[in-house]
């Protein structure tokens, strides 16, 4: 999808994973609480879309929190969540590279997870 990005911009770590049973227990019921379970980590950089790109890529969806880029990785097709720092996001859409060259990157559109409380 995206070629020619500078890998030096990839300065932060993203944790890709899913929701599962955590080690924390609900004191009222004794059942394990749902928590984020890390499947793998990758380096990422933040990607800024122009207004024209944003309209073409998302339409008028204002729920998209941010777009990040990572090195092409087929494993992201199997995960639903990303944690950047302490903030949890849903993966809204992935624009995967064809993977034919070593300089391929994937764009990952993220939507902030809504929590109650």
Describe this structure in words.
Strands 2-3-4-7-6-5 form a six-stranded antiparallel beta barrel. Helix content is 7%, strand content 53%. A hairpin with a 2-residue loop joins strand 5 (81-84) and strand 6. The chain contains one helix and seven strands; from the N terminus they run βββαββββ. The chain is mostly beta strands. The radius of gyration is 16 Å and the shape is globular. The mean pLDDT is 82.
How would you summarize what this structure contains?
The chain has 117 residues and is mostly beta strands. Helix content is 7%, strand content 53%. The mean pLDDT is 82.
Radius of gyration: 16 Å
The global form is globular
Uncertain spans: none
Strand percentage: over 45%
Strand order of the largest sheet: 2-3-4-7-6-5
**How can the largest sheet be summarized?**
6 strands, antiparallel, barrel
- What level of helicity do the residues show? under 10%
Beginning-to-end CA distance, first to last residue: 38 Å
SSE pattern, N- to C-terminal: EEEHEEEE
Mean pLDDT: 82
User: Which structural category fits the helices and strands?
Assistant: mainly beta
Q: Can you count the beta strands?
A: 7
Q: Supply the number of helical segments.
A: 1
């Amino acid at each position: 999808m995206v070629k020619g990005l500078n890998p030096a911009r990839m300065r932060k770590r993203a944790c890709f994973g899913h929701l599962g049973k955590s080690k924390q227990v609900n004191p009222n019921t004794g059942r394990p609480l749902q928590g984020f379970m890390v499947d793998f980590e990758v380096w990422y950089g933040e990607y800024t879309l122009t207004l024209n790109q944003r309209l073409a890529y998302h339409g008028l969806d204002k729920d998209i929190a941010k777009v990040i880029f990572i090195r092409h990785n087929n494993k992201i097709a199997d995960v639903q969540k990303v944690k950047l720092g302490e903030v949890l996001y849903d993966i809204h859409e992935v624009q995967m590279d064809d993977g034919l060259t070593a300089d391929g990157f994937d764009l990952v559109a993220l939507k902030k997870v809504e929590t109650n409380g």
